[in-house]
Amino acid sequence: MNETAALEGLELLAQGKVRDIYAVGEDRLLLVASDRISTYDVVHPTPIQDKGKLLTGLTAFWLDRTAHIAPNHLASFTEVPEETRGRAMVVERLEMVPVECVVRGYITGSGWKDYGATGAVCGIELPAGLRESEQLPEPIFTPATKAEIGDHDENVDFDRAAEIIGDRELLEELRRLSIELYVHGAEHARERGIILADTKFEFGRRADGTIVLGDEVLTPDSSRFWPADGYEPGRGQPSFDKQYVRDWAAGSGWDKTPPAPALPDDVVAKTRALYVDAYERIAGEPFSAWLERSGAP
Predict the structure, then answer these.
(1) How confident is the model at residue 52 (pLDDT cuts 50, 70, 90)?
(2) How far apart are CA 158 and CA 248, in angstroms?
(3) DSSP secondary structure string, 202-263?
(4) Share of the chain residues as helix, strand and coil, in percent rounded to the nearest 5
(5) Which residue of 139, 143, 167, 263 lies most exposed, with the fewest beta carbons within 10 A?
(6) In which band, very low, low, confident or very high, does the pLDDT at 3 lie, cut at 50, 70 and 90?
């Protein structure tokens, strides 16, 4: 099952670039990860087989490993409709914070472009002379706006992000949690031969104000994973994430506006293999173990 836009008897509340969200009673949601893949905030028509299950399995792994840092929204990954097992989670319904909490440990991507233009990222001045992909002196918190489908996320400075959410104290706590989560994830990944270059988190709040980690966590879609062996600053790095698809798309002649082009078979196969490799290294188990544990078809 590659697309999950309709599940009988459930109300579809929203459909994102990858995830579909359904109502489950008054206080729960069903979060279903499809096999869709997007680059430059546009969804390609070609799915990546098992991508939704790989993303969900990794998220479940990280939610378990990070529960001591922040409570999370997971209620169950087994009590889901049979056709969505392995790719779906029942989660708490939260008031989501309207900014993405991005943490960068290395200078790359849009951060590298901003640094080249201004010497700073999201208003944070960085040392002169950094090379592309170089590790930063310490991880930095660089929030971004949440884009609608087809639009691009926008990096913003701390003051602007605080204006967007209307609570500076809350954003300061989200910065603390985000950096702690990144450091924890980066240390584990490095032990498994993977550099966690950057990542983004999403948070919500319960009715009592408790901050809760939500959405996907430390996956190849929300993070840049680089193989530690062969890492060399001064250039772009090979990647375990969808950067492989981004690189293909950038060289395809596509102008990065909808509609996105179909992906060649070899790009699909290589991308799936990278996702599987990332899962198995980080989770320390074969991908088939997640399929069995979750009851996936």
Answers:
(1) very high
(2) 33
(3) EEEE-TT--EEEES--S-TTTEEEEESTT--SSS----SSTHHHHHHHHTTT--SSSSPPPP
(4) 30, 25, 45
(5) 167
(6) very low
Dist CA 175 CA 122 (whole Å): 13
263: Cβ–Cβ under 8 A, 6 or more apart, which residues?
Answer: 37, 44, 46, 245, 248, 271
Q: In whole angstroms, give the CA distance from residue 173 to residue 85.
A: 34
Cβ count within 10 A of residue 22: 24
pLDDT score, position 152: 61
The pLDDT assigned to 1 comes to: 36
**290 vs 220, more confident:** 290
Instruction: Look up residue 197 and give its two tokens.
Output: 């270059």
Reduced to 3 states (helix: H, G, I; strand: E, B; else coil), residue 88 is strand
What is the set of domains in the chain, with CATH numbers? 95-249 (3.30.470.20)
The tokens describing 11, both together, are 């109300």
Phi, psi of 196, rounded to the nearest 5 degrees: -90, 95
Token pair 């056709």 is found at 83
Bridge partners of 223?
A: 199
Whether pLDDT at 91 is above 70 = yes
Mean pLDDT along residues 109-132:
96
User: Which pLDDT tens digit goes with each residue over 233-285?
Assistant: 999 999 887 878 988 999 999 999 999 999 999 999 999 999 999 999 999 99
